[in-house]
Design goal:
By secondary structure, the protein is of the alpha+beta class. The protein has a single domain, classed as TATA-Binding Protein, CATH 3.30.310. Helices cover about 50% and strands about 25% of the residues. It has a five-stranded antiparallel beta sheet. Strand 4 and strand 5 form a beta hairpin. The protein is globular. It starts with a helix and ends with a helix.
């Protein structure tokens, strides 16, 4: 049992070291989610799913502050990354978490793609457009 716990903790360590990028907004979570969806679709990408964690928590009589994950992608960007290293598929499509902190500040958060995929065989030049898209989309959603 102990070796399994140690192995799991070692696997989790790289994820903890990844850089989380937070973009603050004056919008509410639903407004920021709508703005992000519009920005994604306006950029020619597609929203694959929206996960309302607050609503899901309510189904088990638990409470969360507003917390929604938007999952989206553009095959023109993601496909070459997965061609370089199929393991990148575990991290694609991209995700942005739109959430409200304890002080009422709404943020759009995402992992830096270069760091998230740092252990993979993906050339940096394939990740730069993804990082730029995430910067632009979250800035547009933040207003």
């Amino acid at each position: 049992m102990r070796p399994a716990i140690l192995a799991l903790s070692l696997l989790a360590a790289p994820a903890a070291a990844q850089t989380m990028i937070d973009v603050e907004t004056d919008r509410s979570v639903p407004e920021a989610v709508a703005a992000l969806t519009d920005a994604v679709e306006g950029a020619g990408a597609r929203v694959v799913a929206t996960v309302d964690h607050q609503a899901n928590a309510a189904t088990v009589d638990a409470e969360l502050r507003p917390l929604t994950k938007v999952i989206f992608g553009n095959p023109a960007l993601g496909t070459p990354i997965m061609q370089a290293d199929p393991r990148a598929g575990i991290l694609l499509p991209q995700m942005v978490l739109v959430w409200e902190d304890a002080d009422g500040q709404v943020r759009l958060s995402y992992l830096d793609p270069a760091e998230a995929m740092g252990g993979l065989d993906v050339p940096p030049e394939l990740l730069e457009p993804v990082a730029g898209a995430l910067r632009n989309l979250t800035a547009a959603a933040a207003g």
